[in-house]
Amino acid sequence: MENAFQDFQRAFACHLRDPQRVARPAGVPARRAAVYRELVFNNLCGFLDACFPVGRAVLGDTRWRRLNRAFLRDWPLRTPWFREIPGEFVAYLGAPGKRPPLPRWFAELAHYEWAELAVDVMDVPESAGVAVADPLAARLAVNPALINLAFAWPVHRIGPDWRPLRPDPVRLAVYRDAAGEIRFCELSPASARLIELIAAGASSGRDAVARLAAELGRDGPQDLLDFARPLLAELLGLGILYGSAS
Question: DSSP states of 177-230 as a string?
Fold first, then answer.
């Protein structure tokens, strides 16, 4: 009996996800099945609409709903958590496979929009850090509620009134500040790399700069030190970096 019920659940779920190609199970009234189909799809769209307002706006409602339908139909979506649905949508857009025609930059735009939700729900210890007199001498740490992103397209500028015609690489930090607000910051390649080096365990701001100089093939990091001191101070002020006690 239990196996029969599970078989029914699977059959009904397959119908709800792809009603055009999968018939409803025997014994399920057409009207009741239609109610469930509408509930499932509308709930899914509610989560996607909330997380990807720019993506929806640039595609328009018709193309957006067609994409939502394809996602529901074609992607396994194994997570039981509603808040993980947008992340699954980003994975769907980035995975190989057939999907409705989309702009070349759309998957990166969706990833950028999803990062705001991902940072907002990150379960990380809150810390204001310690005071820093000299960012080169101090031990620094990266805000734990931060995602350091690299895109081929200028996704932070895309909207209904502007779409890029060619790639233009950009580095972006999405993070939660001490007040719990989500912030976005465009980074230079050097800034982004310094953040990565600090996250990887550089013992101080000076150590991170020395490692960057070595990567760039510089014999001495003095010019980079002069450049990095105000840069690190700015990143500390923004809450991207913290002074670390350890």
Answer: -TTS-EEEEEE-HHHHHHHHHHHTT-SSHHHHHHHHHHHTT-S--HHHHHHHHH
